[in-house]
């Protein structure tokens, strides 16, 4: 059995009910909505909503490990495998743990809105965005906490 205090996916699951969040769930037609739900000395928790077609750029988490849980709807995570992106569909109730070097794209390719909870350890301080160029990851830009989000 995993320890809910150290297993980031278990932490995400403990925030799976939007009715218990400190902020109301919203959907933004222009861009993904996100809100920080909690932060401790060991991790931070974020909620995200995704309308159909909304997604992220190819990015990492600045050396933080993490996990995310799809609370409602369905998301597609694409990870770099060789020289291409490999898709993984995640339905409501499923999630993913990842290490500090994980690079991915997350998108709502479904026709219904989606909601997810993300947990990072340590708290996010930086995220690098990439582009896949001739099968190689190239840095596009670096976003800093407090400036970009």
Can you put this structure into words, describing what you see?
- There is one protein chain.
- By secondary structure, this protein is mainly beta.
- About 5% of the residues lie in helices and about 50% in strands.
- The protein has one helix at about 10-15, and strands at about 35-40, 45-50, 60, 65-70, 75-80, 85-90, 95-100, 105, 115-120, 125-135, 135-145.
- The strands form three sheets. A five-stranded antiparallel β-sheet has the order 1-2-9-4-7. A three-stranded antiparallel β-sheet has the order 3-10-11, with no helix packed on it. The chain has a three-stranded antiparallel β-sheet with strand order 6-5-8, with no helix packed on it.
- Strand 1 and strand 2 form a beta hairpin.
- The longest helix is centred in the N-terminal third of the chain and has 6 residues, at about 10-15.
- About 30% of the residues are buried.
Essential attributes:
149 residues; 1 helix; 5-stranded antiparallel beta sheet; 4% helix; 3-stranded antiparallel beta sheet; 49% strand; mainly beta
Which sheet architecture does the biggest sheet show?
Answer: 5 strands, antiparallel
Structural class: mainly beta
Low-confidence stretches: none
Distance between the termini: 35 Å
| Quaternary structure annotation | single chain
Helical stretch tally: 1
- Give the neighbour order of strands across the main sheet: 1-2-9-4-7
Radius of gyration over C-alpha positions, nearest whole angstrom: 15 Å
Number of strands: 11
Please state the overall shape, judged from the principal axes of the Cα atoms.
globular
| Binned strand content | over 45%
What fraction, in percent, of the residue positions are helical?
Answer: under 10%
The whole-number mean of residue pLDDT values reads: 94
Q: What is the H/E string?
A: HEEEEEEEEEEE
């Amino acid at each position: 059995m995993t320890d809910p205090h150290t297993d980031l996916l278990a932490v995400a699951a403990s925030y799976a009910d939007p009715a218990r969040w400190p902020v109301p769930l919203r959907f933004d037609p222009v861009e993904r909505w996100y809100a920080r739900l909690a932060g401790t000395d060991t991790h931070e928790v974020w909620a995200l909503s995704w309308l159909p077609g909304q997604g992220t750029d190819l990015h990492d988490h600045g050396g933080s490990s993490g996990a995310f849980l799809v609370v409602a709807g369905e998301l597609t995570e694409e990870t770099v495998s060789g020289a291409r992106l490999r898709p993984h569909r995640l339905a409501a109730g499923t999630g993913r743990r990842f290490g500090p070097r994980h690079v991915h794209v997350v998108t709502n390719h479904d026709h219904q809105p989606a909601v997810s909870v993300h947990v990072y350890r340590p708290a996010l301080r930086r995220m690098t965005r990439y582009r896949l160029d001739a099968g190689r990851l190239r840095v596009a830009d670096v976003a800093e906490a407090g400036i970009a989000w």
